[in-house]
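=== Structure Prediction Worksheet ===
Name of assembly: unnamed complex
Input type: mixed (protein and possibly other molecules)
Chain count: four
Listed entries:
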Amino acid sequence: MTVAAHTITARVRYPETDRMGVAHHSHFSVWFELGRTELMRGIGCPYGEMEDREDVYFPVVDLGVRYIRPARYDQVLEIETRLVSCEGVRVRFEYVIRDEGGSTLATGHTMHASVGRDGRPKRLSGKVREMLSSGMERERNRC
Amino acid sequence: MTVAAHTITARVRYPETDRMGVAHHSHFSVWFELGRTELMRGIGCPYGEMEDREDVYFPVVDLGVRYIRPARYDQVLEIETRLVSCEGVRVRFEYVIRDEGGSTLATGHTMHASVGRDGRPKRLSGKVREMLSSGMERERNRC
Amino acid sequence: MTVAAHTITARVRYPETDRMGVAHHSHFSVWFELGRTELMRGIGCPYGEMEDREDVYFPVVDLGVRYIRPARYDQVLEIETRLVSCEGVRVRFEYVIRDEGGSTLATGHTMHASVGRDGRPKRLSGKVREMLSSGMERERNRC
Amino acid sequence: MTVAAHTITARVRYPETDRMGVAHHSHFSVWFELGRTELMRGIGCPYGEMEDREDVYFPVVDLGVRYIRPARYDQVLEIETRLVSCEGVRVRFEYVIRDEGGSTLATGHTMHASVGRDGRPKRLSGKVREMLSSGMERERNRC
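=== Predicted Assembly ===
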């Protein structure tokens, strides 16, 4: 049930490379986060506002990355993000990172808990849930 | 068949925290790498020398992290690393990160390919394989 | 003698914030580098090509940053970069980072040495020097 | 009037290197911060407690780094930190980073403002000032 997809681009920065000459593996989860951030903004639910106005935080509770090809300095990456599920206090995103020619460099997922500032589980409010759902709906119809 | 374990400590640095007030999730794989680096050094096979003298690189091909409790600023982390398997051109490590009281903050794994500078698969040389194996043996006997 | 100016935008990323709730000071020099990279690309002298084709590297030999206002999560930064001088084996850039309303958040400079892969000083080739000069000229005329 | 010195060591991490094969220049200010953190702890004034108990933050308002030699992967750095002055709402530290052989890799300084959680200038409390002063005194006598 993949429901909301979003694609952005990001260039590999110099300090993201390492002495192997390619991007260090730890940056892929940062690129995932960029994709997730823009997906959330795109469905009318900017992450910063969720934290500041709704007191809802989405810490990562599970991360998986499969690295297929290296990402190189100055390369433009296409980051596709899908909001796959959103139930109770769990939200799951899936990602594909491609180079400009469409070759897949990495795939992955993040699972998030919905918590309050105090770190305790917190069910998504009706308002947030509604934005996520209508955003998903909109994306589905666009496909 | 867990074969070589190694525990080091590392403090959470200020820039590793984010505005949620805890360590950003992307740094856990960096801490995994610190653990892996010291395990390799401990079994007589420092990573830098492997790259420089043996032309063997270990890029990460698969990463998994399960986040259980947040890591806080200035907290001393215990990073336990196990070299779990080493076959053909694949090497697998597993990790547990605990706080000073022994509570588990995160667990995870990395799978690495053995490649040359050109990025092509490269079987581990007899020398490297021997160091890894004898290191594993030593660890096993120590337990 | 300010000679080539270039302005780009970049958003403050979540992992660039720290537990003080604002961007960590170490990221400003990364934003300077983004500005410098695009200025170089803009004058026909992409940094990656300089390294790969000309064997010219521009390590930073001096950095100065004056922090005036904090940069906040998700804020869009305007990064203005000027190529101020380029003589012998020294190249100097100056930077201003502003928020969307035009308020200055930080100013700074970097001085770079021109070196080869071996780290030794290396005078800029006629080709690189020409590109830098004509780029400067173009910028000057545009103002 | 150099008043409190402190030396720690830190190893260059793999993700701190870049494709030039050496540590990226942005990490030096992180190493400065490590030195500053341990100096503060050493004089009985841990930075985290200052933030949490005294509501005093020390954002960097000015940073200067002079890069002399590159720092390499896995190299053990000696970071010497001096608390140079502490007046009103300004605190200044100076740093020298050396390799194991004692060669200087970089020097630098940071100037910090003393502010409250709200970001407004906040004079150091008598308690914090006293700890800093007695720490300085202790260091001076040790020399």
